[in-house]
Amino acid sequence: MAVYWVARSRINDPEPYNKYLATAPSVIEQHGGEVLARGGKYKVLEGTEHYNRFIILKFESFEQAEACFRSEEYQSAAVHRRAGGGGDVEIWLVEAYVQD
User: Fold this and answer.
1) Which helix (H) or strand (E) holds 70?
2) How far, in Å, CA of 55 to CA of 66, rounded?
3) Which tens digits make up the pLDDT trace of 54-86?
């Protein structure tokens, strides 16, 4: 069953955030992730407007998506946006809904 990695972020400092972006997309791809939406036009209909970047990735399974997030390669990339002050990020994994 497909799983979606849904993230919203706010870029605080482009320099460390760009270091994250230099590696993270290839790590996600290596783990079977497919980018469905990244950046682009958006409109907040309800909720905080703190975040200004939205990302949706698709994986084949919950385990695959979580393994990508927990991988040494992804965590090494994410340290740039975390410790480097590059941005605020929230990430969720959401299993696709299948109606019986």
Assistant:
1) helix 62-70
2) 16
3) 999 999 999 999 999 999 999 999 999 888 778
